Amino acid sequence: MGGENMSQASSFLGLDFGHAKIGLALADGETRMAFALGTLKNDQHFQEKLKKIVLENNVGKIIIGKTKHDNDLESGDEKLKFGRELESKLDVSVEFFDEMFTTKMAHENLKMHGGKNIAQFDDQEAARIILQSWLDKAQ
User: How far apart are CA 98 and CA 86, in angstroms?
Assistant: First the structure.
């Protein structure tokens, strides 16, 4: 991906997909630093809430974490379907990025910073890691 496309979007949204909840991270196109944004319940109101976040933050691209495990094909297909649905309903570009070990890394990061209630924050930290890794690779 060229730098030209990167500068057109004012921000990027990272998602760590889960059946119960979805972790969110946001990065500004200029600073290229990802920050945990929170989590949303993966329910019937998810797309409506996400659309509000996309519009408020002028998100030009959504990055969704996806594993490359052969034993995770069903989950991979589900994430692809989820991404395509977001792309059409929110009218925003969606890209997938390998998320190997992001939850484990999220736990380690949160522990290192003295985090309590790690399970409450691991989805948003995993989303932050996915988005920051994508930003670093896209430079």
Answer: 18
pLDDT at 4: 39
Q: Domain range for residue 18?
A: 3-138
CA dist., res. 125 & res. 64, Å (int): 13
Q: Give 117's DSSP letter.
A: S
How many domains does one find in the chain? 1
Whole-prediction pTM:
0.78
Could you report the per-residue pLDDT of 10-53, keeping only the tens digit for each? 899 999 988 899 999 999 988 889 999 999 999 999 999 999 99
Alpha helices in 3-117, H assignment, sequence order:
3-8, 46-56, 73-90, 102-112
How far lies 43's CA from each of 48, 62, 124, 126, in Å? 10, 19, 17, 20
The CATH code of the domain that includes 27 is 3.30.420.140
Handedness of CA 84, 8, 46, 48 (dihedral sign): negative
Helix pair 118-138, 102-112: axis angle to 10 deg = 110
Single-letter residue type at 116: K
